[in-house]
Amino acid sequence: MAFEDIIFEKEAGTARIVINRADKMNSFRTRTIEELHAALLEVSADNSVGVTVISGAGGRAFCSGGDIAEMLDLDRVTGREFLFKFMNCLQEVRNVPHPVIAAVDGYCLGGGNEINLACDLTLATEKSRFGQVGPTVGSIPVLAGTQYLPRCLGDKRAKEVVFLCKRYTAREAKEMGWINQVVEDGKLEDEVKTWCERILEMSPQSLRIAKLSLNFEADLMKPSFTHGIELLSMTYGSEELKEGMSAFLEKRKPEFMKFRRQK
């Protein structure tokens, strides 16, 4: 397919997938997800590729999550379709038979962090910030945030991240086990290249088997993804979600208090 929302390149055993919506903080719309999935399917089938790197264009964000302007118009049917496409994209990151590196330079939030969590390794610049944002806009991170995040951070920390929606520095993320390495701003590409070169020295067969085995326990949680999709899709079109997403677009604080049951 012709790519509009991503840049996709392959060279010397390394595939590069760049989310190319810098003017939208690299948020993803349906087309973005479809293009990411198509690129991942291609690298999965290409035996000449030994490592894949996912990054974001522009130097401000890896990915800031779903495009609220599109998501606001989703209903239960179209929302379910959108979520299944996103789930399939994340699952393909896990299915790629070699390591996938998230190269984070800037904000890695919401669904963007769920892409990060699906990747095998993460390198990030000092300026990068991590977090979930779902409950601030009436949504929930049920496609990795409630599955992989607790495995990285532990139950209590994961609940803090999801419930409070704070933003964490790259150093804090590394200390929590959220990411692998922090590098100086401007030095990310050099470090990513070093990691890719090291991976390409390894036995492809060994890495493929190791990744499959390391992912075994997490793969058992796939029913949690489909369960989450059915629950989250029922919120699309609701007044509460519309309030949260409208408030985001209007740059105001959402009035969620009015949706709380009065005693």
Description:
With about 260 residues, the chain is α/β, with parallel strands linked by helices. The chain has a single domain (about 5-185, about 200-205), classed as 2-enoyl-CoA Hydratase, Chain A, domain 1. Helix content is about 45%, strand content about 15%. It is built from twelve helices and ten strands. Helix 1 links the parallel strand 2 and strand 3. Helix 1 (about 30-45) runs parallel beside helix 3 (about 75-95) and helix 3 packs antiparallel against helix 11. The chain is globular and about 60 Å long. About 45% of the residues are buried.
Number of H/I helices: 12
Domain tally? 1
**What's the shape?**
globular
Determine the structural class based on helices, strands and strand pairing: alpha/beta
The SSE order reads: EEHEEHHEEHEEHHEHEHHHHH
What can be said about the biggest beta sheet? 6 strands, mixed
Quick recap:
The protein is α/β, with parallel strands linked by helices. The protein has helices at residues 30-45, 68-71, 76-95, 111-118, 148-153, 155-164, 170-176, 188-200, 204-214, 216-219, 222-233, 239-249; strands at residues 6-11, 14-19, 51-56, 61-63, 100-104, 107-109, 121-125, 129-131, 168-169, 181-183. It has one domain (6-185, 202-206): 2-enoyl-CoA Hydratase, Chain A, domain 1 (Alpha-Beta Complex), CATH 3.90.226.10.
In terms of topology, how is this protein built?
Blueprint: E1 6-11, E2 14-19, H1 30-45, E3 51-56, E4 61-63, H2 68-71, H3 76-95, E5 100-104, E6 107-109, H4 111-118, E7 121-125, E8 129-131, H5 148-153, H6 155-164, E9 168-169, H7 170-176, E10 181-183, H8 188-200, H9 204-214, H10 216-219, H11 222-233, H12 239-249
Parallel strand pairs: 2-3, 3-5, 4-6, 5-7, 6-8, 7-10
Antiparallel strand pairs: 1-2, 8-9
Helix pairs in contact: 1-3, 3-11
